[in-house]
Amino acid sequence: MRPDHSFDPHFLTPPEESSLFANVNSTTSWRHDTITLYGREHLVPRLTALFGDPGVRYTYSRITMEPSPWTKELSDLRQRLEGVTERPFNAVLANLYRDGRDANGWHADDEPELGDEPFIASLSLGAPRDMRFRHRATGSTWTLTLTPGSLLLMYGDSQRDWQHCIPRRAVAAPRINLTFRQIMNPTMPRSDTSPRRRGHSAQR
Ligand SMILES: O=C(O)CCC(=O)C(=O)O
Question: Domains in the chain: how many in total?
Fold first, then answer.
């Protein structure tokens, strides 16, 4: 049992991957957010940044992010991904895992502004890290190793029926993940007419 996905381990060549890692790592103003869990404040165990079109705003775990403008490198990458996937993307959430102690807890990218069946293009740079998937109903799990330069597409039932996480690992090197998304503004017409209002399924 697997979530709806496709995986290209060699989307970027090694030189493209290392040059993009160096560019994003050094030019990004990374933020380090705090979340409140059971009344106690915790630092999110990774650094993040949002790039996107003007007016796009992304909220998860009660953290709202305003986008920085696209850099040339990210804009070129967006165009390339749009060509390959034939899907539009108006934002990219960047995660920096400084080493293996940084992580991303169980969650689904199922915020209402991502629509009914979110289509997410997730590019990995730097250290390889595992992504674990867990089926919400059956508890069945699956692990995919996200290698540098790989592209994971998640779509269909992948956010509705599954959760995913990036567990801690004994890794010293940093990793950057870029998840391209199409975020619908609250004022934009919604294709999702489902009465079930979904929210982020876990704090991460
Ligand atoms: O780091 C990753 O590959 C996953 C990131 C993720 O799950 C997210 O940003 O929602």
Answer: 1
Q: How far is the CA of 126 from the centre of ligand 1 (A)?
A: 14
Residues 142-151 have pLDDT tens digits of 999 999 999 9
40 CB-contact burial (10 Å; exposed 0-12 / middle 13-18 / buried 19+): exposed
Q: Which residues line ligand 1 (CB under 6 A)?
A: 93, 95, 104, 109, 122, 131, 146, 164, 166, 177, 179
**Nearest atom in ligand 1 to 165's CA:** 7
Residue 202 lies in a domain: no
Domain containing 148: what range? 5-181
Give the predicted TM-score (pTM) of the model: 0.90
Place of tokens 């996937």: 85
Residue 45 is assigned to a structural domain of this protein:
yes
CATH of residue 122: 2.60.120.590
